[in-house]
């Protein structure tokens, strides 16, 4: 298991913007994370006190970033990326902040190289799947 402080060293986000509390498991292809940050009143992605369901995409993106580091780029600085494409997105909740349980975030690498990567992802709370889809992420080149 990897805790929040270590996750902050893996991804480009820190402080309240780091949305993952724990990496529960990972291998070369998949990562499973847990989060309570959807309930945090200081979550910077809240708008008018609410955390919309589509914010789950950022939880998934952070899991993807953590996976990229753990599955092969552990000694590199965190690389910034941006989501270029979302496919087959299915969001089954309006708000995340009203959920009492922890979020389980999984991301499975489907393909990729040094410039782009594609993941399937899912977010659930207990037995309820809240969101699933695929994301293509473009990785920015390291500054020289």
What does the model show?
The structure is a single chain. Helices cover 15% and strands 39% of the residues. It is of the alpha+beta class. It has a single domain (2-139), classed as Roll (Thiol Ester Dehydrase, Chain A). The chain starts with a strand and ends in a 5-residue tail after the last strand.
Topology diagram in text:
Blueprint: E1 2-3, H1 4-10, E2 22-26, E3 30-35, H2 56-70, E4 81-91, E5 103-112, E6 116-125, E7 128-139
CATH architecture: Roll
Can you identify the CATH class?
A: Alpha Beta
Q: Report mean pLDDT, rounded to a whole number.
A: 92
Weakly predicted, low-confidence segments: none
What is the percentage of strand-forming residues?
A: 35-45%
Overall geometric form: globular
Distance between the termini: 33 Å
Q: What is the rounded Rg?
A: 14 Å
Order of helices and strands: EHEEHEEEE
CATH superfamily: Hotdog Thioesterase
Main β sheet profile: 7 strands, antiparallel
Keywords:
alpha+beta, seven-stranded antiparallel beta sheet, about 140 residues, 7 strands, 2 helices, Thiol Ester Dehydrase, Chain A
Question: Outline of this structure?
Answer:
This protein has 144 residues and is an alpha+beta fold. The chain is 15% helix and 39% strand.
């Amino acid at each position: 298991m990897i805790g929040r402080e270590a996750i902050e060293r893996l991804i480009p986000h820190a402080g309240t913007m780091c949305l993952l509390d724990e990496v529960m498991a990972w291998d070369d292809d998949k990562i499973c994370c847990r989060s309570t940050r959807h309930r945090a009143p200081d979550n910077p992605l809240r708008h008018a006190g609410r955390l919309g369901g589509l914010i789950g995409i950022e939880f998934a993106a952070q899991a993807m970033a953590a996976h990229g580091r753990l599955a092969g780029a552990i000694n590199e600085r965190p690389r910034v990326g941006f989501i270029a494409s979302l496919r087959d997105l299915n969001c089954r909740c309006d708000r995340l902040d009203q959920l009492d349980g922890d979020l389980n975030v999984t991301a499975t690498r489907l393909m990729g190289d040094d410039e782009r990567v594609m993941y399937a992802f899912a977010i659930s709370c207990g037995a309820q799947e809240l969101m699933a889809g695929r994301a293509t992420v473009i990785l920015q080149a390291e500054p020289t």
